[in-house]
Amino acid sequence: MEIKFYNTLTRKKEIFKSLNKLEVTMYNCGPTVYWYQHIGNLKAYVFSDFLRRTLEFNGYKVKQVINVTDVGHLKSSDAFGADESGEDKIEIAVKRERKTAREISHYYFNLFHQDLKKLNIKEPFVWSWATEHIKEQIELIKKLEEKGFTYKTSDGIYFNTSKFKNYGNLAKIDFEGLHAGIRVSMREKINKTDFALWKFSKPEDKRQQEWDSPWGIGFPGWHIECSAMAMKYLGETIDIHTGGVDHIPVHHTNEIAQSEAATGKKFVRYWLHENFLTFKGEKVSKSKGGLFTLSELEEKGFLPLSYRYYVLTAIYRKPLDFSLEILENAQTSFKKLKKICSKIINDDKINEKYLKEFQKAINDDLNTPKALSVLWELVRDEKAVGKYKTIKKMDEVLALNLLEKEETEMPKEIKELLEERQKAREKKDWKKSDELREKLKSLGWEVRDKKERWEVEKV
Ligand code: AMP
Ligand code: ZN
């Protein structure tokens, strides 16, 4: 069955065909590991995981690389016309937490990695760390230098965007017109859009992370890391590259320019971008709200997979508005779905009709809300056969543990009350035993006494 993806490069839904018939190469822009990844960031990885699983469902092998940015992402370099003079995010954390850069990056990466596991996100072929690929980044800058795309200023080596013919094609930005009014700190830059490939260390910054290079001691720019690592592991032309929509105008625009200038080949065939998790219509942020970590949601009683379910209820290309109430509703539906699924008995057949409908939905640019509605229809269809195996197959992509038998985690307080009640029963103190049963009931746990034993269930 054909797969269609919306390609940011052409602004169209296109039929997907990989370069290599059986294996798809995919690069996902990964985390900058200087702080906790919030649920907005995690949305990006639920999306790329769903994308990978969709390709696998269609019989492809996926060679997936996710980078870990542990150097060079400057505080100012996300914005258009960044002046490239901001501080390195990792170095800021080093000063804030009085730890080594390595301790910082590994600490935040490990937390992030645990979150991915909780969200059933698969491991990539490689996690590529920027600091482990300095040599490759220097080589790529050297290549650009040889081809005349670079120039030197007092603070680094820059890419001359006016030398690259199609600069800004991805973002479809009329840089001259649209941004004429934007004030960009030019310093020694030739063009507003030029960006640093290599930055020189300033002695007063006392950087922890710096390396020798043909141009002087310093560190690589953020954009070059992705080009160098994507090409190292996946080749000069890759099938799919993903990231959040915020990466379109600067980071991905620059990745294309450097990579294509260096190789003379098309860098990425399909660019896929997921839209933001928003709070009251604006990107979740410290000042606007909605900025939770997955652990914080867990502390509030949410299951990590309820968050995955919630993300899948929306089209990835549209902003997704978040609030605890909305998530609560999603969790209620998700729990209901799981409860129904957990009671389905394996009858060893596949329901081809429903599975086809499901595949049609995911192959249509990852239409996850449609896919979920097909699943809901199937579970509610009393006449449908082959439910178990079909749901199992669907869950290879949804990854919601739908058929897992429910095991409700019992809080310590409940366990203690049950123990106390058991002791009362052994002493034949029926009054106390009844009181404790009522207390448990008020806490949402129903105890039923049977002849030899008792049972307890969360209601
Ligand atoms: P960062 O760690 O800042 O480099 O971001 C990691 C990924 O999360 C990038 O692909 C961003 O585009 C994405 N991202 C950041 N904020 C949000 C958000 N509010 N909603 C969805 N994706 C986001
Ligand atoms: Zn990147």
Blueprint (SSEs and pairs):
Blueprint: E1 4-7, E2 12-15, E3 23-28, H1 39-57, E4 61-68, H2 89-97, H3 101-118, E5 126-129, H4 134-146, E6 150-153, E7 156-159, H5 175-178, E8 195-200, E9 218-220, H6 222-234, E10 238-244, H7 248-263, E11 268-274, E12 277-279, E13 282-283, H8 294-299, H9 304-312, E14 320-321, H10 324-342, H11 352-363, H12 368-380, H13 387-398, H14 412-426, H15 430-442, E15 445-449, E16 454-458
Helix pairs in contact: 4-6, 6-7, 9-10, 11-12, 11-13, 14-15
Bound molecules: adenosine monophosphate and zinc ion.
Structural description of this entry:
- Helix content is 42%, strand content 16%.
- α4 crosses α6 (222-234) and α9 (304-312) crosses α10 (324-342).
- It is of the alpha/beta class and 459 residues long.
- The protein has 3 domains: 4-274, Rossmann fold, CATH 3.40.50; 278-398, no CATH class; 412-458, no CATH class.
Quick overview of this protein structure:
With 459 residues, this protein is of the alpha/beta class.
Provide tags for this entry.
five-stranded parallel beta sheet, 459 residues, 3 domains, binds zinc ion, binds adenosine monophosphate, Rossmann fold, four-stranded antiparallel beta sheet
